[in-house]
Amino acid sequence: MKILLDSVGCRLNQSEIEKMAFKLRNYGHEIVSRAADADVAIINTCTVTSAAAADSRKLIRRIAREGCVKILTTGCLSTIDPDRINSLPSVIRSYSNNEKDFLADNRIFNNTIINNSKISRKPLPGKNKRTRAFIKIQDGCDNFCSFCITRIARGKGWSVSKEEIFADITYALSGDVKEIVLTGVNIGSWGKDFRGACNLAGLIRDILGRFDIPRIRLSSIEPWDIDDAVLELLQHPSFCHHFHIPLQSGCDATLQRMGRRITTREFGTLVEKIRSIDENTAITTDIIVGFPGETLDEFQQSLAFIRAMDFSGGHVFRYSPRAGTPASSFPNPVSNLIKKERSKLMRNQFQISENNFLKKHLRKELDVLWEKSDKKENGKYYLAGITDNYISVQSESIVDRYNEISRVKISEIKENKVIGEIL
Fold first, then answer.
1. CA-CA distance, 390 to 140, in Å (whole number)?
2. Residues 209-241 pLDDT 10s
3. Can you spell out the DSSP letters for 363-388?
4. Element of type H or E holding 271
């Protein structure tokens, strides 16, 4: 059977459809990139914002329009709003997050013969193609941020067993993966639900001791989960010098209403500590603008703090009320027009900070993992990839270097576009 796998949202969703692909290939099925070629499509949905929910519905409609008559959905939107999802064209059933791991065993796939031969990892075809492998180590969340629907959609936090993580990494490395990304809803909580002394830093040390991995990267990690043991990993040559640390606001009053377990002073101390170890470590973050009750003064405090932190990049979200979260009933909502204006100002500041970070690397030599390779009419390959500290670099080569790591000298930075010369 030919099956299309697609997702909206986070790296966790991407890791989950990659695992589905592994299971389905073991059953002898083929993963395809076009809806018109698929007998069945599986869509992993998102609902972290109203825009993400809309994108999920739009994707389902497009796949149905392009000719796939059987669509199965799962993910956070399918968990939160299954009735609406089931009403969409070609959707024959939606599965909650709790049912997701068993979706590939559905009888619709006629899984009568299991392929017991050893299957190596292959990147998903089409737009979901990734050289890097996203490895799910954790799911769910026990934090109580007042704006977050994900903790409701994903449930309480739980850790993937070390044995399963090792098996997933072994599968990834069988496909010549050069970088794995550890992902989850709240990866810093890994191991806390196990007996004994288990934590994220220990897991990473065990992975690095067991596997020969050129790179291991963390996805988003909460600031209160970055302790000295995690920071010590920066000394290991395979550990990527990049932390994506969600802040959500640069104003303490707003953070308190959000239920965030940190102050701007504590966050600033953490950033200073990371940079004291290595000033070239990339620190990126998430910011929400227009949270209920956010006054002009609070926004200006937030903007000033973001400017002071001089992040290497960041994502800006306009607050999106999600039914079932405490913040959805908070007083003093901010108008959409003001949210739009504040989002623009915050994005502009992140653009300035990112450019500051990039300029520090001009004429420096960095290692780049090439994730994209397109052959041009002149016979050369156009390459795009990332450094271990998450700088996107472009270059040209007379040979195809897809999924290779090259030493590159940064030769030009123009409008946040980084050009490198392969050495």
1. 26
2. 999 999 999 999 999 999 999 999 999 999 999
3. T-EEEEEEEEEEE-TTSPEEEEEEET
4. helix 264-277
Residue 108 φ then ψ, to 5°: -60, -25
Contact present, 211 and 361 (Cβ < 8 Å) = no
Which spans in 118-212 are helix H? 150-154, 162-174, 200-210
pLDDT at 119 over 90: no
User: What's the pLDDT at 114?
Assistant: 66
Average pLDDT of 303-331? 96
Q: CA distances (Å), 338 to each of 79, 294, 296, 299, 321, in order?
A: 31, 10, 10, 11, 15
By the 10 Å C-beta count (0-12 exposed, 13-18 middle, 19+ buried), 31 is classed as buried
Cα dihedral value 249, 143, 271, 341, nearest 10: -20
Q: How far apart are CA 306 and CA 237, in angstroms?
A: 30
Task: For 127-359, give the CATH class.
Answer: alpha beta
Asked whether 8 and 56 are in contact (CB, 8 A), the reply is yes
Residue 200's pLDDT band (boundaries 50, 70, 90)?
very high
Q: Which H/E stretch holds residue 45?
A: strand 40-45
List the Cα angle 57/59/62 in 5-degree steps: 110
- CATH classification for the domain delimited by 2-109, as one of 3.40.50.261, 3.40.109.10, 3.40.50.720, 3.40.50.12160: 3.40.50.12160
CB 205 within 8 A of CB 232: no
Cβ(136)–Cβ(251) below 8 Å: no
Q: What is the pLDDT of residue 110?
A: 77
Q: How far apart are CA 201 and CA 199, in angstroms?
A: 6
Q: What is the mean pLDDT of residues 394-420?
A: 94
List the chain domain ranges.
2-109, 127-359, 365-422
Would the CATH topology of 127-359 be identical to that of 365-422? no
The CA R_g of the chain, rounded to the nearest whole Å, is: 22
Which candidate, 77, 80, 87, 94, places its Cα nearest to that of 41?
A: 94
pTM of the model: 0.93
CATH 2.40.50 fits 365-422, yes or no: yes
